[in-house]
């Protein structure tokens, strides 16, 4: 079960185009696993910004000088994240976590390829550490629009067996997208499983490439999450269940990690007419 705590900002470091923020959060890191996320209150107690902001966990430490701490990464994209970027050491933040379903781990050592886009690589770094502890071979493919929007590539280089980097403008690594180099990486590393986090278009491409090669994939989707606890239904997307039926599921509760081959990528943002409960005709429900 997640916990709600009022923590203090330990540090807020600028890393390229992003901010990495560390916050005390007693009780959260002990429960957290790679793929979990936090819901952070923004704007302060008197703010009109009522909705929390969801951030994937980048690091979690149950012990240390400050006690239990969590770290997350974000880019300024609106009033809420702009307010958050102005917080300094000692400022208080209300956080809820860990939330969602984390990445599922292999029962035996495997060769795993981790694919990240922009700061979507943040939850993949703790995942890589856990996989290495389990004896897995870990390869990274990281991409972004430009070098300042890459995240974690230096950490990935230290912990991975192989690392491939791409940027749209060619300012770091190969010019292009992760999907351009991923097929060769999968073949070269003889990968058994693919994990990915980043923009939805990237996740679709990665899932398709893995499926073409008969490889299982797990993707942490980046749907907008207003409440983070499954109440508001703003983060639903169509996913095929074990029974073969499509259902509109909540990314914040049933996800954010899904099997890549189960997401109906072509129907994201819509309610497919064959989904359970979809309206199939005026006044009729399936």
UniProtKB/TrEMBL annotation:
The entry marks the following residues as binding [2Fe-2S] cluster, namely 227, 232, 235, 252
The organism sits in which domain of life?
A: Bacteria
Which Pfam family, giving just one, matches this sequence? DHODB_Fe-S_bind
Ranges for domain FAD-binding FR-type: 2-105
Residue numbers binding FAD: 80-81
CDD domains the record matches = DHOD_e_trans
Q: How many and how are cofactors bound here?
A: Binds 1 [2Fe-2S] cluster per subunit. Binds 1 FAD per subunit.
Q: What is its EC number?
A: 1.3.1.14
Q: Does the keyword Phosphoprotein apply?
A: no
Q: Which cofactor does it need?
A: [2Fe-2S] cluster; FAD
Q: Which UniProt keywords apply?
A: 2Fe-2S, Electron transport, FAD, Flavoprotein, Iron, Iron-sulfur, Metal-binding, Oxidoreductase, Transport
Q: Which InterPro entries match?
A: Cyt_c3_hydrogenase_gsu (IPR012165), Dihydroorotate_DH_ele_sf (IPR037117), Dihydroorotate_DH_Fe-S-bd (IPR019480), FAD-bd_FR_type (IPR017927), FNR_nucleotide-bd (IPR039261), PyrK_electron_transfer (IPR050353), Riboflavin_synthase-like_b-brl (IPR017938)
Q: Which GO terms describe its molecular function?
A: 2 iron, 2 sulfur cluster binding; dihydroorotate dehydrogenase (NAD+) activity; flavin adenine dinucleotide binding; metal ion binding
Q: What are its GO biological-process terms?
A: pyrimidine nucleotide biosynthetic process
**What is the uppermost EC class here?**
oxidoreductase
Family, per the entry? Belongs to the PyrK family.
Q: What is this protein called?
A: Dihydroorotate dehydrogenase (NAD(+)), electron transfer subunit
Q: What is the lineage of its organism?
A: Bacteria, Bacillati, Actinomycetota, Actinomycetes, Frankiales
